[in-house]
């Protein structure tokens, strides 16, 4: 008998793996992928749902259907041989063949039926290592208790403990700093930098002397928008200044900004979008997108039209516009203290009816082409890598995407992702080598001293 490490492995997939990545089967090269029948039952039940889970389930079913259609002479029960040495098969539940399990686990629960199907396969195919793959930590713990090896889905998980920040500190001579500003550029020599990565430069002779520059893919260049404002807003700390630089640069088509609550992500993105569309007329409209399902009840349960249903979920956008309008009015002398101009709701309603502003959820993105627009994707940490890709593939001519979110685990309500596997960090790490993208992490909370205390101490 061969050792387990010398032969292919059996990977039994939980339903949440197919929901997280509908194309996951093709990532198990040289191994056997097993779907318990109950997994197909769960996909069948989920595919009629609205929202993200329904979309992911339908996409998973399409992927499975495509495999079957391409291999009509093979059977799912016997195993379909597909690319890269992968064999896909469906297993009957069959847990009744394991004596005594009904005393330990409630067999009416689908998770337990999956577990016991994996246990039966392990007992029947002892020469092959059987591994349960699930994103549910409780599922993995129960598997371990039953003696089944269990793993998280690692293919699109960002392994690095230090996620890309977009900023690096370096030291140069004072003469080199002078040349950077006198000539407008400076060769980074042997520095390993990503396109649109920022550097905070300190002088070797005088460390207190500092300068900021951006690597444009070939050389270091000074900041271009350091003294600019957008819709009256100016960045108030170093990291906001760098995020503002990325957002204002129209050659950077994807900007990602991560940071905690109150760090300024939404208000910066909103101010730049309003500036680009309403003042500079460089784009035709603003599209504000955010997920709704993970944070509460499905959008379909809310009364009213699509706009009325979406209104409760778009509070961050309304708050940002209201703050910008208030700040703008507070800077202008007023003859009549009662004349405060139109309310936020009135202004946004007018802009929506004019087609200048759209507010959408991910549910409405399939098949769309988002052209001539600034697209703000809020709460991007709630997306799966598959959905993040879906959003970016909507990009049309003259579009700029701004992904914002807080990828820490305590800000993620979607059970299919975590701080290392969500769509935001996936895009940051996978696309950081492209000159079309730029990223910065905001670490300072500017909302209020109380918000700063809560973010740091709680």
Give a structural overview.
With 458 residues, the chain is of the alpha/beta class. The chain folds into 3 domains: 4-151, Rossmann fold (3-Layer(aba) Sandwich); 160-222, Archaeosine Trna-guanine Transglycosylase, Chain: A, domain 4 (Roll), CATH 2.30.130; 230-457, P-loop containing nucleotide triphosphate hydrolases (Rossmann fold), CATH 3.40.50. It has 14 helices and 16 strands. The chain has helices spanning 15-20, 37-46, 51-70, 110-124, 137-145, 174-183, 238-248, 265-279, 306-310, 315-330, 344-353, 385-392, 423-431, 449-457; strands at 10-13, 32-36, 80-81, 87-91, 130-133, 149-151, 167-172, 198-203, 210-215, 220-222, 254-259, 285-289, 357-360, 373-377, 399-405, 437-442. The strands form 3 sheets. It has a 6-stranded mixed beta sheet with strand order 3-4-2-1-5-6. A 6-stranded parallel beta sheet has the order 13-12-14-15-11-16, sandwiched between helices. A 4-stranded mixed beta sheet has the order 7-8-9-10. Helix 2 (37-46) crosses helix 3 (51-70), helix 8 crosses helix 10 (315-330) and helix 12 (385-392) crosses helix 13. It is globular and about 75 Å long.
